[in-house]
Amino acid sequence: MAESETKKVAPLLVIDRVTYKKLKVDIKSETHAKLTEYVAFYRKATGDTKASDGEVVGAALEWVFREDKAFIKFTSGSGATR
């Protein structure tokens, strides 16, 4: 077995099941195809067979919100209106 196959892979995202709001959006078909692949990857890697497209999108957005330094600065009061 190749070295890369022996290493455990884990998704960057973590799904936290809480209260959800419906959001209807249009995305490129290529992006939707990748989302479908990522959901399958997430389910296999974590064993969470209930993971949905919406949960993965939500977790991805939360990750972006945590990691985007410009957005963090913006929301810390230097540009955001609340």
Please name the defining characteristics of this protein:
82 residues; 0% strand
Computed CA radius of gyration, to the nearest angstrom: 16 Å
Beta-strand content bin: under 5%
Class based on secondary structure composition and strand pairing: mainly alpha
What helical percentage do the residues reach? 40-55%
Task: Please give a structural write-up.
There is one protein chain. This protein is mostly helical and 82 residues long. 54% of the residues lie in helices and 0% in strands. It has helices spanning 3-6, 29-46, 53-67, 69-75. It is globular, with a radius of gyration of 16 Å.
What's the topology here?
Blueprint: H1 3-6, H2 29-46, H3 53-67, H4 69-75
Short summary:
The protein has 82 residues and is mainly alpha-helical.
